[in-house]
Specification:
The complex is a heteropentamer of chains A (159), B (157), C (337), D (401) and E (176).
Chain A (H helix, E strand, L loop, with lengths): L4 H12 L5 E3 L2 E6 L1 H13 L4 E10 L4 E9 L9 E9 L4 E3 L8 H12 L2 E3 L31 E4 L1
Parallel strand pairs in A: 2-5, 6-7
Antiparallel strand pairs in A: 1-2, 3-4, 4-5
Chain C lengths: L1 H11 L1 H8 L3 H22 L17 H11 L10 H16 L19 H9 L1 H13 L2 H32 L4 H7 L4 H4 L1 H15 L10 H4 L9 H26 L8 H6 L5 H17 L9 H29 L3
Chain E lengths: L5 H7 L3 H12 L1 H12 L13 H8 L21 E5 L2 E2 H13 L5 E5 L2 H4 L9 E2 L9 E3 L6 H16 L5 H5 L1
Parallel strand pairs in E: 1-3, 3-5
Antiparallel strand pairs in E: 2-4
Classes of the chains: A alpha/beta (159), B alpha+beta (157), C mainly alpha (337), D mainly alpha (401), E mainly alpha (176).
Chain lengths: 159, 157, 337, 401, 176
């Protein structure tokens, strides 16, 4: 299997299930739907992207969505220069996605963290418990944009 | 296998004994002795009242919001003051100061007993820093790299 | 006048002097205070640093343990609500008492023994076997998961080292045809360690195991079980528990010296003529040097795993101890001693 | 390996009456700033639940609330023992967004500090691995020798641990006088010391007994679990983010990526020693090859008034241009990966065109390795837990952010 | 360990009246100064790392700065220690643990806050997950810096050592 060919076959496979991979420097970007997420992930594993580097949620209140981004990575020499980026948008008021723990076992903590900090529910994840936040946290998920941290100005008035 | 194990036991004990007989101590007897920090050490910050042009860049770049511009009632110019409760000694304020009004001192071994002692409004900010250890008459030591001992601390001339 | 002289006679009599002054209580306290400091200083020296210093600068901080001990003494003594009070409070005291008792069987010179029994060696070792029981009581009384884990470890370790300790000691008894320390010393024309090195090695390792010093400080394994059975102890009780291991070790080094390093021989005659117990100084010096070597091992070794220590005890030391018995018998047959 | 087999080891069985739960941490001699909920059956571990988050200081959120440059010292606090490597990824991501490239000398200097930090970080890890089997000498030696490298880094950057050295477009300080001699002396000293480490620690039968064959991680498991850093390479997978050639000058230097096949705790420790040797090799080459030139990109250098620039450059430092206080990030996103002492760090910075980054995603090596606490200990004895923990070189503040 | 009659002393301390008597005795000048001398040379911090300043805390007991010269020995369990060093940020989750640790320590006990984060949050001052330690504990010394140099920690320990030796401690604990 020579360089590129695996990547190209992955691209082709992704096109076959109706997704549009876009090439960027160092990243192969795919916009997926919640339904096509699991097939895309399975395809990625088959082609060598055998673990996740990151699961990330970005809150876009203006569009009313939370974008969940999976970065899959491979340690193989031909694939390690390129990350596979799968982006899924879910509605902000009810963010639900299938869990990928079956496909990528190391999603265990990454998904749990995204649930903890961004409030995205991963269906089928065995333990969506608090990971980083204190167990009694009852505020909104802190990484959402409507959770504001206070900032201070530059000036202080003194007598 | 067995002999190798015995040899390794003996080697480990011999290494320990070697250091027991000829220790390689690198301890600085602080507070009797104090290390002279390197030239560019980022210690407590000193403020030069006259050089300051009140541009506010230092307060704007401070990542910890420790540096603030203190605006006195009736005065036009605001001046920087620092809050060591928050300062993280990243040195951004000194590096961005366009008139070199802020500078590093090589003093960093301080401890405070009260919270408000750590607030440095502009007037207090200009005060000079002296290392508490040196005030107690500590010997000043220079750090020298050494092939045999790693670090050596020799008295400063 | 008569009262004073009889008091002096009482103090200098073997029955009092041995257990209370030397090598007993007073010396034990002195050893305890100094050896922990020595241990910390040696470790510090190997580890590129200084160790305790400022408390008594001219002597290199030699009274560091006095400060630590006093601090423990004056510190609040917490009795947690969840503990079983009687074993929790009693066990450290009992343990310390039993750690002190064996010194009554240590002879210091040919005719200076506190208690003249023909079985001083088994009595000495036997008294030491009470301590693991008190440690179990501490662990049970503490009612803490870490403590109970530590107690179980102590129980396991005890069966691993005790048999070995006794067998290797008895092999020397076979060699010297006596169970008495004093007679053993007299029987040693050549130091026992040269006659039966296997027995000496086994006894040496087993006594480190027994005292719970590195590399066998498994009972206190702080990286897993905080301080083992002693986790819940604070103040003076913790000071006691900390001291037990050292006291035990000091006793064992005395026994080791008597059995393998020919005790007080060669006897320093002038000292002996002043007062018989002074002859024991050489014994003490030998034992103390051995003690220093054992605490030095802290700087070289980490901790073995429990099952590894048990394996060392049962699979390596136990056969070796049996071999040492046969070696002793063989030596006896040849007629070396 | 199918992932369901993996899951079986990762997830715990519920409702077992035989198990005995022990809570290790957060106050425990071997816990650091985390808690391990250990489930024991007798003396055998049946499950470990790493309870992290004790040092969660909300860095990702705070990075959104600060101007781009201010996040450098912020993110540095994740791993203060390895602060150059932890920030270099973020700085690279900013540089990609801003479209600046550091000049060659700056890239060499970054590499130099990266390797100094890597050595210090590995020594930290090895020292802790020593104290986890109660080998206090190893702890003290490693921490004593680490001071040599900290001192070097301090003379270069001006701070012991938190260097905040890289800024977009370059670095803040040039090499001081006589640095090369000092570094070479330190290297020669360290080479000698590594042999001593072998004698008293790595070859010590007691240490071998504790670490050899414990916590074995097979290569395919390491791949599937996304393990990074020395823990990965000790399992025979040759992967290092430095190979990507994304930052520093690693493509211009000759060095090896040490790999070991056994995958047990001992090989993880030994691999760190190998990496220290390679890092010293890199430092030697960097000091030989370092070119003359500016240390900040021309784009920013000319914004500094010459009156300030010249004397500062003569001193071997730069002044920040005023624009650094309000650096405007172009709209877009950037991904950067860098190799820390603990493993690969991943940054994904999204910008909406304002001064503050819209979202900073960081996945740290310790956070990716935390899964090993679930995976490795089951089946081992309780006393092996510290050995496994010690060999993983896990740094809780880094995982919790 | 040091007193042959310790069995008596410690059984007596169990009862309320003897506790008072012991308290009275300990407060007398010679006893008290002996006690404070002992405590000042035996400041044992509990092994409790709250955050990343622990790296510099390790450097304090490591060879180059070696505070064991002052009898400073990091120890296992809160029950046997008397100094709580808050090493950096105290998150909400950790603050609860820190409170428990502090309560479990036998008195007299001291708290030193190390690092900017342990004073006013430092760079994390506006984070939603941090606690300021001086709201929870009577703190004897604050050490600025992020992280403070080991010398700064040593400075605080030396000053605490001298303060205890002069019997001037406990004022803060009584106030709060």
């Amino acid at each position: 299997m020579n360089t590129g060919s695996r990547l190209e076959r992955l691209e082709k496979g992704l096109r076959d299930i109706g997704l549009e991979p876009v090439k960027a420097p160092g990243v192969l970007r795919v916009d997926a739907q919640p339904e096509s997420l699991v097939p895309a992930a399975r395809l990625a594993v088959e082609h060598g992207y055998d673990h996740l580097a990151s699961v990330e949620g970005i809150d876009w209140p203006s569009e009313g969505v939370i974008e969940v981004i999976y970065h899959a990575e491979s340690y193989d020499e031909d694939l390690r220069g390129t990350l596979l980026e799968i982006r899924v948008k879910v509605p902000r008021d009810e963010p639900r996605l299938p869990s990928l723990i079956e496909v990528w076992p190391n999603a265990l903590f990454l998904e749990r963290e995204t649930w903890d900090l961004m409030g995205v529910v991963f269906e089928g994840h065995p333990e969506l418990r608090r990971l980083l936040m204190p167990p009694d946290w009852d505020g909104p998920p802190p990484l959402r944009k409507d959770f504001k941290v206070k900032t201070e100005g530059v000036f202080v008035n003194v007598e | 296998m067995f002999r190798g194990k015995v040899r390794r036991h003996v080697e480990a004990i011999a290494t320990g004994l070697k250091y027991l007989v000829k220790p390689n101590r690198i301890t600085v007897y602080y507070p009797e002795e104090a290390i002279v920090l390197s030239e560019r050490y980022r210690g407590m910050i000193h403020y030069d009242w006259d050089k300051c042009i009140s541009c506010g860049l230092c307060a704007m770049i401070c990542p910890a919001d420790a540096m603030k511009m203190y605006r006195k009632k009736g005065e036009k110019k605001a001046r920087p003051g620092i809050n060591y409760q928050r300062c993280i000694f990243c040195g951004y304020c000194v590096d961005i100061c366009p008139t070199n009004a802020l500078s590093f001192t090589r003093v960093h071994d301080v401890a405070f007993e009260k919270l408000d002692e750590m607030l440095y409004p502009p007037e207090k900010f200009t005060s000079e820093w002296r290392s508490p250890a040196e005030e107690r008459g500590a010997r000043r030591l220079r750090v020298v790299f050494d092939e045999e001992r790693g670090l050596k601390h020799v008295p400063e001339q | 006048m008569g009262l004073v002289s009889s008091l002096v006679r009482l103090v200098l009599s073997p029955q009092f002097f041995g257990p209370i002054v030397f090598p007993g209580l007073v010396t034990v306290l002195a050893v305890l205070l100094s050896i922990i400091w020595v241990e910390r200083k040696i470790a510090a020296r190997v580890q590129m640093r200084v160790g305790p210093l400022y408390i008594l600068r001219p002597l290199g901080g030699a009274i560091q343990m006095l400060a630590d001990g006093l601090r423990f003494f004056f510190q609040e003594f917490i009795v947690p609500e969840t503990v079983d009070r009687v074993p929790f409070l009693l066990a450290p005291v009992v343990a310390m008492s039993f750690a002190m008792l064996p010194f009554a069987f240590v002879p210091l010179a040919p005719n200076f023994k506190p208690y003249t029994v023909p079985y001083s060696m088994p009595a000495f070792l036997g008294l030491n076997t009470v301590i693991p029981l008190t440690v179990l009581a501490m662990a049970w009384g503490s009612n803490n998961k870490f403590s109970i884990q530590g107690g179980i470890r102590e129980a396991y370790m005890t069966i691993a080292y005790e048999a070995v300790l006794f067998i290797s000691a008895y092999s020397m008894a076979l060699l010297y045809h006596t169970l008495d320390f004093a007679e053993m010393v007299e029987a040693q024309k050549v130091p026992g360690i040269l006659l039966n090195p296997i027995s000496a090695l086994v006894f040496f390792i087993a006594m480190i195991m027994s005292a719970g010093k590195l590399p066998f400080d498994i009972v206190e394994g702080e990286q897993e079980i905080v301080a083992g059975p002693f986790t819940e102890y604070s103040g003076i009780a913790f000071g006691l528990t900390m001291g037990i291991g050292y006291v035990q070790l000091y006793g064992f080094t005395l026994a080791f010296t008597l059995m393998y390093l020919s005790g007080w021989e060669p006897l320093v005659a002038p000292l002996y003529s002043i007062y018989p117990a002074l002859g024991g100084i050489l014994l003490f010096v030998k034992a103390y040097l051995l003690l220093v070597f054992i605490v030095f091992l802290r700087a070289v070794y980490g901790r073995y795993r429990l099952d590894q220590a048990l394996r060392i005890g049962w699979r390596t030391l136990f056969p070796l101890a049996i071999v040492s018995v046969f070696l002793s018998i063989a030596l006896g047959v040849i007629g070396v001693v | 390996m199918s992932s369901s087999v993996m899951e079986a080891r990762l997830l715990e069985k519920e409702g077992d009456e035989e198990v005995y739960e022990v809570f290790i941490g957060p106050q425990h001699p071997a816990s650091g700033h985390m808690r391990l909920i250990v489930r024991l059956e007798g003396d055998v571990i049946v499950g470990v639940d790493p309870d992290i988050g004790w040092v969660h200081r909300t860095m990702e959120k705070l990075a959104e609330s600060k101007e781009a440059l201010k996040a450098i010292p912020l993110l540095e606090r994740m791993t203060i023992i390895d602060s150059q490597n932890v920030t270099i990824g973020y700085v690279r991501a900013l540089e990609k967004l801003l479209g600046v490239e550091p000049p060659p000398r700056a890239r060499y200097l970054r590499t130099l500090l990266s390797e100094i930090n890597r050595i210090a970080s590995h020594l930290y890890g090895m020292g802790l691995a020593g104290i986890f089997v109660n080998h206090s000498t190893m702890f003290m030696w490693c921490f004593g020798d680490r001071e040599v490298w900290i001192q070097l880094a301090e003379e270069l950057t001006g701070a012991r641990l938190t260097h905040s050295y890289s800024v977009p477009g370059g670095v803040r300080r040039d090499l001081p006088q006589g640095f090369k001699e000092k570094a070479l002396k330190a290297i020669r000293y360290m080479e000698k010391r590594l042999d001593e480490y072998h004698r008293i620690f790595f070859d010590n039968p007691q240490v071998r007994a504790r670490y050899e064959g414990v916590g074995v991680l097979k290569p395919h498991e390491a791949r599937r679990l996304g393990v990074v850093g020395p823990n990965l390479r000790a399992s025979g997978v040759r992967y290092d983010a430095r190979l990507l050639g994304d930052y520093g000058v690693y493509d211009e230097l000759e060095f090896e990526i040490p790999v070991r096949e056994e995958g047990d705790a001992m090989s993880r420790l030994l691999l760190r020693g190998d990496e220290i040797r390679q890092s010293m090799n890199i430092i030697r080459q960097v000091l030989d090859k370092i070119p003359e030139g500016p240390i900040l990109a021309e784009k920013y250098l000319r914004l500094i008034p010459p009156k300030l620039r010249e004397p500062a450059l003569k001193e071997g430092r730069i002044k920040f241009p005023g624009i650094f206080a309000n650096l405007k990030l172009p709209k877009g996103e950037a991904v950067a990966r860098a190799e820390m002492g603990h493993g690969e760090i991943f940054y994904h910075v999204t910008s909406d065109g304002s001064k503050k980054p819209y979202r900073v995603r960081v996945v740290t090596p310790s956070f990716r390795n935390v899964i090993l606490f679930r995976y490795l200990p089951p089946g081992h004895r309780f006393m092996d837990l510290p050995a496994i923990y010690g060999s993983l070189d896990y740094f809780p503040p880094e995982a919790d952010r | 360990m040091t007193c042959p009659f310790m069995g008596l002393a410690f059984l007596g301390r169990l009862e309320e009246s003897s506790r008072k008597a012991a308290q009275w005795l300990v407060e007398r000048t010679p006893v008290r100064s002996l006690r404070d001398w002992a405590i000042s040379f035996s400041l044992w911090p509990v092994h409790f790392t709250t955050s990343c300043c622990g790296a510099e805390f390790a450097a304090v007991s490591a060879p180059r700065f070696d505070m064991e010269r002052y009898g400073f020995l990091p120890f296992n369990s809160p029950r046997q220690t008397n100094l709580l060093l808050i090493e950096g940020t105290l998150t909400r989750k950790m603050a609860r643990a820190a409170e428990i640790v502090y309560q479990q320590m036998p008195s007299p006990k001291f708290v030193v806050a190390m690092g900017a984060c342990a004073i006013d949050g430092g760079i994390f001052h506006n984070s939603y997950n941090i606690v300021r330690p001086h709201e929870l504990f009577p703190i004897e010394y604050f050490i600025p810096g992020c992280p403070p140099r080991p010398e700064a920690v040593a400075q605080a320990i030396v000053r605490l050592h001298e303060k205890v030796k002069r019997s001037e401690y406990g004022v803060k604990a009584r106030e709060t």
